[in-house]
């Protein structure tokens, strides 16, 4: 996890490096768990594959593709953007922005939006790739912007939320928040509705704003910083927020996984957890990739663990995704694992990209889309 830490102050960096060095001398770090054999019950079959430039690049980017209708959109770290027919992988259009992309991609209402390390937002016509506008924000953008057709909401690394006019890119409002002293490198992607813009912050809070003017409607703390060192007090909400009906699911690093009422922010339930990847939901259960490498299935009614699979310890898992009757999750060696939703046992496995799978898989119908770190975008079905 050290490579995903972003430092706010050089003094803290020096102290933390010293502490880490002492820790590594006294206790050797364990390697990623070796994969164990299992009886294969499900076979994944590749439908198509396409290379998207340099993929995630050398830094810890989380460039997740986006699907709208029959098109899947993906971008690489250098600004290569592609729109593909999601059924067969045929290229509909491609564009080279020649920009350091770090927040990609958001798509809705015919607009594709991308954020960069330089604090730029680029909006493209989703059907043609034609550039519509560019806007400047306060700092780097590490998650895709969200769009409700009227306002594009951007979350920056410094915990600001900015509302831009979807037609012109003109700034409508700014929500300012003081970030934590030490944070993970990343932010969760905001979620927008016709009324609200919702985001998770580095302080362990979730905030909901009136999307028309940026005024806070509610805020809820999901995690409370604890411990003596700044490292121990990191409680970022970096995994993507998940909205299902009127319930908002959220997980924080060194904090909790929780369900909130979207309209009021009221906490429906919570459970101690540490995740920088995020959650999935389906069939009355919530699934979470823990920072330890454990995948857990949680019963929403009782908030107890239905099952826990720790066989992927320290394998730097992606966020989970529900696929048919299974839970899909990627790892640092590029394996896509399928686990049973019933008891968490392994039922299938396929290696996609030897450089690793960091981005959350996407599922539409009977197809799962996986974007590897090297830039390989692959569509698979169950054979």
Broad CATH class:
Mainly Beta
Q: Roughly what percent helix?
A: under 10%
Number of helices: 1
Judged by helices, strands and strand pairing, the structural class is: mainly beta
What is the number of domains?
1
Residue-averaged pLDDT: 91
CA-CA gap between termini: 35 Å
Indicate the low-confidence ranges by residue numbers: 1-26
Give the CATH superfamily.
YVTN repeat-like/Quinoprotein amine dehydrogenase
Cross-sheet strand order for the largest sheet: 2-34-33-32
Main beta sheet: strand number and arrangement? 4 strands, antiparallel
Radius of gyration: 20 Å
- Count of distinct strands: 34
Strand content: over 45%
Please tell me the CATH architecture by its name: 7 Propeller
Mass-distribution shape: globular
Membrane topology: Lipid-anchor
Signal peptide: 1-19
Function: Part of the outer membrane protein assembly complex, which is involved in assembly and insertion of beta-barrel proteins into the outer membrane.
Family: Belongs to the BamB family.
Description:
With 383 residues, this protein is mainly beta. The chain has a single domain, classed as YVTN repeat-like/Quinoprotein amine dehydrogenase (Methylamine Dehydrogenase, Chain H, 7 Propeller). 4% of the residues lie in helices and 45% in strands. The chain is built from one helix and 34 strands. The protein has one helix at residues 10-26, and strands spanning 5-7, 44-51, 66-68, 71-75, 80-85, 91-96, 101-108, 111-116, 120-125, 131-136, 146-147, 151-155, 161-165, 171-175, 182-184, 191-192, 196-200, 205-210, 216-221, 242-244, 247-251, 255-261, 267-273, 278-282, 285-289, 295-299, 305-309, 321-323, 326-330, 335-340, 346-351, 362-364, 367-371, 376-382. It has a four-stranded antiparallel β-sheet with strand order 2-34-33-32, with no helix packed on it. It has a four-stranded antiparallel β-sheet with strand order 3-4-5-6, with no helix packed on it. Strands 7-8-9-10 form a four-stranded antiparallel β-sheet, with no helix packed on it. The longest helix has 17 residues, at 10-26. The protein is globular. The two termini are 35 Å apart. Mean pLDDT is 91; it is low at 1-26. Its main location: membrane. Residues 100-309 form the Pyrrolo-quinoline quinone repeat domain. It is found in: Cell outer membrane.
